[in-house]
Amino acid sequence: MKKNATKIPANNNEINLYCFVGEAVFKVQMVEQALSYSITLKMNPTETKERADEFLQQNQSYTLGKAIKIGIKEELYSLLLQDELKAFLQQRNWLVHKTIIGNEEDFNAGNIKEELLNKIKDISDKAESILHAIEYDLIEFCSSKGKDMSETLALLNLQEQGIRIRK
Fold it and tell me: Is residue 2, in this structure, part of any structural domain at all?
């Protein structure tokens, strides 16, 4: 970059775009993290915490696509959740790899269209929905293994109602 290049500050549309993309990417990463924990628990239900932590550390860097493939191969999730994850992967790939494609002129003009922001927000909302589905799936799994998940379920229900819990 030229040393004497003039930097143009982002306009409000661009700032909104950056915030929406940042929020969506953050929530996608939360889904990836939840899948890593879920895969770890479901594939190692009888292991010690130490062994499970080792497994998690080895597999925590899976991309969303890799984690979904493992979940499908190992039949860790219901068909409905598998389908949601596969569809979500397509949305995530668009977000990460193709947001700009087809919108170059608008970006160059500093003109961000509302429909683009809405599409990104939809991905963010879907990530949050899938995260909750994974959480409930894990609660059901742990319950099926004889664990009392009533307190966790109550906290999750409160969280979904928008009540923040701080310990």
Answer: no
Q: How many domains does the chain have?
A: 1
Supply the range of the domain harboring residue 104.
12-160
Nearest C-alpha neighbor of 28 from the set 128, 119, 115, 120: 128
Q: Structure pTM?
A: 0.85
| pLDDT classification of 92: cutoffs 50, 70, 90 | very high
Whether residue 4 is contained in a domain is answered as no
Domain presence at residue 166: no
Are 112 and 14 within 8 A, CB to CB?
yes
Report yes or no: 39 and 59 within 8 Å, Cβ to Cβ.
yes
Please give the pLDDT value at position 165. 55
**Encoded tokens for 136:** 């409930």
